[in-house]
Amino acid sequence: TDHLQAEIDAVYRKHGLSFAAFDVLATLRRSGPPYALSPTDLINWTMVTSGTMTNRIDRLQTQGLIERRPNPDDGRSTVVALTEAGFALIDMVINEHVANQHRLIAQLPEDLRAGFEDGLRSWLASFEAPDSSEGGRSAALEHLLRHRRGFVLDSARCVRLPVPNATGDKA
To answer: Which residues contact 132 (CB under 8 A, 6 or more apart)?
Structure first.
């Protein structure tokens, strides 16, 4: 897995991003127009502490990729939004990231690739099948959310669950 992670991280580094920065930018991009979320929503989606998120937001704001704006629904708080530069960058990086994933998968022999794609499709479907006993989330998704392991990306959508390093954070 270290080799695969290095291949994935190379795309981020090429654009001056870390996995943590990519995670925040991609989360904002997935949120849809106006590409803005409250810091609390970002914390919930990325599953990091408030201190970690503050550091990430500060770094990305310094880079001009995000900005803090007054919350249009509550003037007492703020939202974190992609800037034009941040939007353009994350769109480019996501496209390169997906192309990189396809390149990595293409290295599998054809017979294994078909089975792998079918297995991954089935696995992803298990996250999307609601289970009323878990508040509408599948049991598989609840397990991964509790244990905060692994990530899955495909060309249609990005479902991301953090992969902690030895210190417990990928920041």
So the answer is: none
Average confidence (pLDDT) per 10 residues, the chain, 171 residues: 87 95 94 93 90 96 97 91 97 93 86 78 71 50 44 39 36 35
Question: CA 65, CA 75: separation in Å to the nearest integer?
Answer: 23
- The residues, ordered by sequence, that sit 6+ positions from 125 with a Cβ below 8 Å of its Cβ are none
Structure tokens at 52: 């970690």
Q: Which amino acid is at 77?
A: S
* Secondary structure tally for the chain: helices H, strands E: 7, 5
Going by the DSSP 8-state scheme, the letter that residue 70 receives in this structure is E
Distances (CA, A) of 134 to 64, 70, 118, 123, 140: 39, 34, 26, 18, 10
Q: Please, are residues 98 and 155 in contact by the beta-carbon 8 Å criterion?
A: yes
CB count in 10 Å sphere of residue 137: 18
Whether pTM exceeds 0.85 = no
* 64: enclosing H helix or E strand: none
Q: Which residues of 17-34 are buried (b: 16+ CB within 10 A; e: fewer)?
A: bebbbbbbbbbbbbbeee
